[in-house]
Structures are given as structure tokens and as C-alpha cells.
Write a structure and sequence with these properties.
6 strands; two-stranded antiparallel ribbon; 5 helices; 29% helix
């Protein structure tokens, strides 16, 4: 993760060693609300304009939280639900305080998850429900007429960058695997991969393919054969692009 962030060109990193041991959980680092408090402190002394990324971790196993549990039980599902409740609480607390800051009116907040989880439904490794993540654009920089708008088109995590750059009238061509989610296209799609397989969704439905058995394990009614070829081409080309870097 640190290598990825350094390669991306961030000017300053605030990492685990910058927090007291008492502020950290037993495995990953500082609890979410501690991190948010530090972000507020740092942004208030940051020259504008700024670009800042916050990475939360308390909703990751082993799901340890520093506040009272909301849901009963000690099984993994209960622990997971409590960890997500805690992160939601910490995020709400952060947003309430952020609204009081002088930089808020000119700031766009982008809220997204890096991945899903098999809980709470114990989804299988290829289940599309495991790969659905939130994307919320908020903050004072949003124009009043677009606040509360819901975009239901298919999209992927990689589309976030082109969507944001397009709003700033900045070039998106370096991001060949990204598209502007706010610009209509003839066939929106979403690709995801997992161990030994991939899923490819379009408005026609979902197709799942297993790379070991070389067979489809799901094809929704109405999904054409060409969608399999599109999914295979996407997987092949993205991996080739990655290996060439």
C-alpha cells in the first residue's frame, strides 16, 4: 500500500508510526475516529487547493472497535456489523465537524470502498453482491441542483478518476480503463475479477466465467455470447497492460 501511494506522488504521508500506540488497534493501525481527527487537524493547516486521501481500516478483520457494540453476539457476522457501525459513526462525526471548517465550501468529498466482503450474507467468492461498493460525492463544492442525485448506471471503481477529472475539465486519456460515469454511453458495463475468474455486467445482465474449468458458471437470460468475449478481452488486455508497466 505504501509503495502504491509513494508511486502516486503524494507529498506527505501520515502513517501508523505517527500515532500513539494507545490509539491503535492490535493489528492494522489507528482507529478510524482517531484518523479522522488527525485529518481535520492537518487540513486546517493545509494550503488550498489540496488533495487528500484518507484510508480507514477498523472495518477490516479482526473487526476490533473502541466503542460499545451496537449489535449483540460474538460471531464473525456480529463483529463485522459492529465494525461497519463504528466506521459509519466515525465518518458521521467527521462530516459534522468538517462542515464547520473554512475549507468545506470549496471541497468535494469522494466516499468509496476499496472492496466488498463476503459478510454479512456469507457470499461466495464470485458473487456480484460481494463486489458492490458505495460511491458518494458530497461536500460544499457540489452545486445545489445535483445534491441528492442518484446515478444508477453500471460502473467500476476505475471510473472514479475519469468522472472527477471530467468535472474539472482535465484530460482523462492517461486513464484508459476509466470513463466518466456522468456521461451517457451506449453500453455501460462493469468488470470485476476474483481468484481464477471474472464477472462482466452490462444492462443485459451478468456473466460469470471460471478460468480454471474454462466455462461459464452464470449467464443471465438475455446476455449475448459477445459479452463473454468482451469480458475475456477486458481481462486479457488489462493484465497485459499491468505486466507491461
Amino acid at each position: 500500500m505504501k509503495s502504491y501511494i509513494v508511486t502516486a506522488g503524494y507529498d506527505k504521508l501520515t502513517e501508523r508510526d505517527d500515532f500513539l500506540k494507545s490509539q491503535q488497534n492490535s493489528k492494522w493501525g489507528a482507529h478510524d475516529h482517531i484518523v479522522f481527527d488527525r485529518v481535520l487537524q492537518d487540513l486546517n493547516s493545509q494550503p488550498q487547493p489540496f488533495f487528500s486521501t484518507i484510508f480507514t481500516l477498523s472495518s477490516h478483520e479482526p473487526f476490533e472497535i473502541p466503542i460499545a457494540r451496537k449489535f449483540k453476539g460474538t460471531d464473525e457476522t456480529a463483529l463485522f456489523r459492529n465494525s461497519v457501525y463504528y466506521t459509519d459513526w466515525a465518518l458521521g462525526r467527521f462530516l459534522q465537524e468538517a462542515r464547520r471548517q473554512p475549507w468545506y465550501d470549496n471541497t468535494l468529498l469522494v466516499l468509496a470502498a476499496d472492496h466488498g466482503h463476503q459478510l454479512p450474507g456469507d457470499n461466495s467468492v464470485e458473487d456480484p453482491a460481494k463486489f458492490r461498493i458505495p460511491l458518494v460525492l458530497a461536500g460544499g463544492a457540489l452545486r445545489p441542483e445535483v445534491r441528492g442525485r442518484v446515478v444508477s448506471d453500471l460502473g467500476s471503481q476505475t471510473d472514479v478518476v475519469a468522472t472527477l477529472l471530467a468535472q474539472l475539465h482535465l484530460p482523462t486519456t492517461p486513464y484508459r480503463w476509466s470513463r466518466d460515469l456522468l456521461r451517457p454511453v451506449r453500453q455501460p458495463s462493469a468488470f470485476y475479477c476474483y481468484t481464477d475468474g471474472f464477472g462482466f455486467a452490462t444492462p443485459a445482465g451478468l456473466l460469470l466465467f471460471d478460468n480454471v474449468s474454462r466455462r461459464e458458471i452464470r449467464r443471465d437470460t438475455g446476455v449475448p455470447t459477445s459479452q463473454l468475449q468482451q469480458g475475456q478481452a477486458y481481462e486479457q488486455l488489462t493484465y497485459a497492460d499491468y505486466l507491461a508497466k
